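Technical annex B. To support the medicinal chemistry partners, we prepared a structural model of the target in complex with pyridoxal-5'-phosphate, based solely on the information shown next.
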Amino acid sequence: MKDPNDQSSLTGLELPPDEMRRLGYSIVDLLVDRWTNLRDGPAWQFSPRRELQPLLWGPPPEKGRDPDQVIGEVVGKILPMAGRIDHPRFFAFIPSSPTWPSVMGDFLATGFNVFQGTWLESAGPSQVELVVMDWFRQWLGFPEEGGGLLTSGGSAANLCALVAAREWAGNPENPVLYVSDQGHSSLERAARIVGISSENVRRIPTDPDFRLDVPQLREAIAIDRSRGLHPLCVCANAGATNTGAIDPLDSIAGLAKEEDLWFHIDGAYGGFALLVPGEKELFHGIEKADSVTLDPHKWLYQPYETGCLMVRDTQLLEAAFRILPEYLQDTALGSEHVNFADRGIQLTRGFRALKIWMSIQTLGLEAFREAIGTGIQHARAAERFIQESTHLEMMGPSSLGIVCFRFRISGADMLPEDLEEVNRGIQDEIVESGFAMMSSTRLRGEFSLRLSILNYRSLWSDVQETLEEVVRIGRRVWRKGGLG
Ligand SMILES: Cc1ncc(COP(=O)(O)O)c(C=O)c1O
C-alpha cells in the first residue's frame, strides 16, 4: 500500500500528512499561548520601515525552506510588529477581539476551500449565510423580504448600499448624498466610486451631542432640489466612529420617506449594540432603513474581514448587482437558490458566515449580549470617573463604547494651545509605553483623547488604570513643560 507520507509520491506543492498535522498543531499551540498571555505583553508594537526593510526584503527563494524556520521568522520578526488589537487595553480607533470559535471557523472555511459565490458551488455554506442573514434581519426588525450579504468590511458594505440606492433611483444625474459631519470617510469614498462628486456630498451639521440635525438636513434637501440636483440618499450614523453618537434614526427615516430618499444607516461600529436589551431603544427607527451596514469584525467579535450589508428588500440589492454571463449559466438554479455573488461586488467569496455561525452556536447569543453590554457599562463608568476627576474633562457625552475626553486641571488657567500640547504629549507617551493603546481625534476643532471600549477581555480595572495613567502623565508633562 502507498505510504501517504512518502515524499516521493507528492508534488512539490504538497506536504506529507504527518508534517501537515505537526505544523498545524504547532500553530494552534502558538495561538493559544498568545491568547493566554495577551494581557502580559504591551498593547502596541510598532517598527518603522527603515528597521523592517533590512529584516524583510529579498527575492523569493527558488527552493522551499524549512517550514519551522519560516514559521519562526513569522512569529519572531513579522507578527510581533503588528498592533495587538485584541489586547484588553487596546482602546484606539475601533478595536476588534475575535472569539476562538470564530478563528476556528476561518481556518476550517479556508481549509475546506469554500467558494461562496454561487449555490451550485456551495449549497451548505450558502444556506448558512442565509441563516446568519436571517438572524441579522430579525435583530434589525426588517420584514421577511429583508436580507443581505457578508462583505469584506463596512467600507464595502457602504459602497454596495450606495450602488443599490443609485440603481433604485434609476441612476439619476447630479445625485446628492447626505451624511452628518461625523459620517465615516468610507461613505465619501463610496460616493466617489458610484459617481457622486465630492461637491455633492453634504456634510450636515450635528447637535451638541454630535447627532445629525434633522431640520438642517431638511433645509439642505430643499436647497438642492431648488438647484435642480437629485437628492439620492441619506446616511445616518449608529454610532459614529468619532463619538459613538447615534443619529435620530426615526426622524431621519420619516424625512427620507417624505422626500423619497434611500435611507442608509452606517451601523458598522455600533449596530450590534442593539442586541443588548437595555440599549435597543437607542436604535429606534433602524427597522425603517432601506439598508444597514454592520461590521461583525467589530462588535460581534469576529476576525477580519467580516462586514455586512442588510437591506429591507433583498430584490432591490439583487437588481442592482445581478449579471449572468454565459459561462455562469449553470449556476442559475432559480431564485430560491441564492447566488451571493448576485448581491455584491465579489464573485469569488470566502465562507465568512461560518465563523459567525460557529461562534454563536458554540458560545450562545447571551454571551455576546453580555460582552457588548459590559463594554458600554465600562464606557459609562469611565465618563463618571472623568466627571469626578479634577484633572480630566469630557469633550462630549459618552455614547456606546466611545469616550472622548482630555486632561485639564480644574481651576487652572490653561490656554487652548497648551491644552493641546499636553494632551498630545499624553497620547504619545501612553502609546510609546505600551501600557495601553489610545488614539486621538478632533471634536469641533479641539484635540481630544478617545477611548473605544469593545474588547470582551477588557475589565473595568483596565479602563480605570488607563485613565489614571493619563492623569499621571498629564501632570508630569504639564509641570515639565513649565506650562503649570
Ligand atoms: C462607522 C463606520 N463605518 C464604516 C467603517 C469602515 O469599515 P471597515 O473598516 O470594516 O471597512 C468604520 C470603520 O471603523 C466605521 O467605524
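Notes passed to the chemistry partners:
The chain has two domains: 104-363, 366-480.
The chain has a mean pLDDT of 96.
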